[in-house]
Amino acid sequence: MLKNIKIVPPFFEIGPKAYMYGDEMLALAKAIDEAAGEFDVRVILTPQYTDIYRVSQAVKNVLVFAQHMDPLPVGRGLGSVLPEAVKAAGASGVMLNHAEKPLTLAGLRACIARAEEVGLYTIVCADSIAEAAAIARLAPDVIVCEPTDLIGTGTVSDDEYVRASTGAVKSVNPDILVLQGAGISGPDDVYRVIRAGAEATGTTSGVMKAADKAAMARAMLEAVRRGWDAAHP
Amino acid sequence: MLKNIKIVPPFFEIGPKAYMYGDEMLALAKAIDEAAGEFDVRVILTPQYTDIYRVSQAVKNVLVFAQHMDPLPVGRGLGSVLPEAVKAAGASGVMLNHAEKPLTLAGLRACIARAEEVGLYTIVCADSIAEAAAIARLAPDVIVCEPTDLIGTGTVSDDEYVRASTGAVKSVNPDILVLQGAGISGPDDVYRVIRAGAEATGTTSGVMKAADKAAMARAMLEAVRRGWDAAHP
Amino acid sequence: MLKNIKIVPPFFEIGPKAYMYGDEMLALAKAIDEAAGEFDVRVILTPQYTDIYRVSQAVKNVLVFAQHMDPLPVGRGLGSVLPEAVKAAGASGVMLNHAEKPLTLAGLRACIARAEEVGLYTIVCADSIAEAAAIARLAPDVIVCEPTDLIGTGTVSDDEYVRASTGAVKSVNPDILVLQGAGISGPDDVYRVIRAGAEATGTTSGVMKAADKAAMARAMLEAVRRGWDAAHP
Amino acid sequence: MLKNIKIVPPFFEIGPKAYMYGDEMLALAKAIDEAAGEFDVRVILTPQYTDIYRVSQAVKNVLVFAQHMDPLPVGRGLGSVLPEAVKAAGASGVMLNHAEKPLTLAGLRACIARAEEVGLYTIVCADSIAEAAAIARLAPDVIVCEPTDLIGTGTVSDDEYVRASTGAVKSVNPDILVLQGAGISGPDDVYRVIRAGAEATGTTSGVMKAADKAAMARAMLEAVRRGWDAAHP
Predict the structure, then answer these.
(1) Which residues of B touch C106 (CB under 8 A)?
(2) CA-to-CA distance for C66 and C91, rounded, in angstroms?
(3) Nearest beta carbon to residue A100 from set B19, B49, B77
(4) 3-state DSSP call for residue C121?
(5) Do C127 and B106 touch (CB under 8 A)?
(6) Which of A108, A127, A134 lies at the smallest CB-CB distance from D138?
(7) Tell me, what's the ipTM?
(8) What's the sign of the alpha-carbon dihedral B84, B89, B93, B99?
(9) What is the pLDDT of residues A171-218, one digit of tens each?
């Protein structure tokens, strides 16, 4: 099955988690979609499962991803999130192994295989450089690097941070895209990370806790474009 | 928040689990909806999370239930099924504690409380009479009784089976509705259970594995009505 | 199989959790054993699995319980805690469904059945009066009542607290013993709860965080005896 | 903290899982210990947690490993297997991520770090070559390779099998020992795998389901020695 939109850098992930749903999610998705087109930045948006259909119907530039899925085949499995159902609802991909929904290694491998099978992109979260390098062996499309063991050391510059985590992944598999996920709270953070060489970054609370969520998302996407153009003149 | 349709006996639960999704689910839901109206039987239908919105929009006589939900509040919780999102997508209720998605006792209690809070019915599964009596203490709307310790004993008649499990629940809380969930594979099974005094029954594989699923669902709903009228002349 | 020591009120549960192990656990167990004899109070002690054998060998008046077990049969199941192995190591019983190790309802029922089968007492934790009443249906030997929904309300007296939670259990099954587990931090708390009519109480941090753990355990056991004699003159 | 016995090839893992416990486990451990000395083969034995202490006290040539442990620190965590308690009971190491006790990637990383901290060896199970390579990034002491995607293909020779899986691990980290875990049911299987170049192999059912378990274990250890000497003349 075809994946409709190709993920190319620079891109940006917005994770509503369980903060937002229904009509409010739909309205924000439309605003993000418009900004994504305006600044020519791919956006991965991960709404609640129940909102995948409505959001998918309403966007053109946004890649809708499920927050998680289960690797089961069609059949039994009450309460599961079936890969085929995620795809049929309009999703382009799935996030896996977030710290709030960790997977066993065997489960992660099975999910990546199932995603490949039904035509879903995979974005897999890593909590350290060692974990990112391990996950790279499983060949997902995107790895989210949040190397908590580097955060807060003070002596590590933004450039070194981006370089080390990206390098750990690319040395295993250069085709995997890397998203730098460290504590983005505003457009300045976005600019700095992308300007430092990152292919992508993203946020949950930066948008979800903003007074004007649509305006914040738009400002961040503008910062992605500006940072990217400065880093790749 | 209001629950739109009241659950009254006789009713019937159809559980697609991970057997069906997308357009095929939608088409079957419409056929079930029509038969539910024709025979004046309430139906609880539990599609994949991703199909709740589409199915809810398409039915009038069917109560759409989520297969499961998580008791978390609005906020963090990536990969979760938020009660508010389930409700906003159009669901009337939620199934909980199925053998394929078991809950801790504390988690079950929390889910029932959250369902109450957002206005969702609860249908809770029990795998024995002891478990059904325990769950009755938590006051869900419906309990599914699949007393595996009685099944296959041979000496227990249908009437005794229905009476014992229903009695265990009603003696704790007479307001709880009881669904008899023992191996329904065709309309004759449906008729026999309802005729024996059950308020409700249901199936997954009976419909999901039928050659003509819509026809089988219709035949089972007809059997519910016929059994009920025979038992309550 | 016989359970060696009978649990009779008043009794007291000391839960080392993961605070203590090895030689320190053994030394404390011996001190507790001596005090349990001195004040004629049954003590349930729940060491790490790895310490069950050594502690069991060293005590006479203390009932050694596992902190948890799995309901699996003899056979496969790597990483499990086999009921037969717990029994063979010298344990008299097992704690189940603690908030830090919650069980599904079906799992709890299976564990109680397996405990019965191999000859282990069961002490099951409940986080509310509704949960205590539900668990009572499964007929464990002891229920720990920590009705968090009553704690901190201010208007509820100790006597009411003990009466309500004990009553909820006993009305279902009068043979089940009830342990009142609310925030015991010193001998005065122990005295007050037992004096108010409780059959048992217990602590983790009250002993584990005491400067002199053996002395604190001894003082608490003395308070159990004193409170019991005052309440049952 | 020191690890007492060094793991050097050839070695052999015997996994009692939940098949055996108590006095029978102790007697078998003693027989294995004697054979391990006789044939100068290191043995990793993974009894139930409750048997670690007794078995450790009774053996000289056998490395006793826990079947699993939790990465929690000393403190709260009822029902957990504390790394310090495992070590204090006499274990030399811990098995992690077996298919019957799978770990999240973050949990596996945390367990390996905790094992390092308290002085326990780690033997980590992988269900495929991709997973083995991923786990190698986390630097455990031993990886168990059970590449299920190769098993049963027929066209793959023993030599190729051993070479591919060992190579995948060693190319990431040559210090990691590799145990070939494919379906050993008798001494001939043991000889063949070790003769093909494996550093180690092991079994559960091969010993646990044998009529004379001690004799079977002894025959397998003899086969390890014979195969090793033939492969390394």
Answers:
(1) 99, 102, 127, 131
(2) 7
(3) B77
(4) strand
(5) yes
(6) A134
(7) 0.94
(8) negative
(9) 999 999 999 987 788 999 999 999 999 999 999 999 999 999 999 999
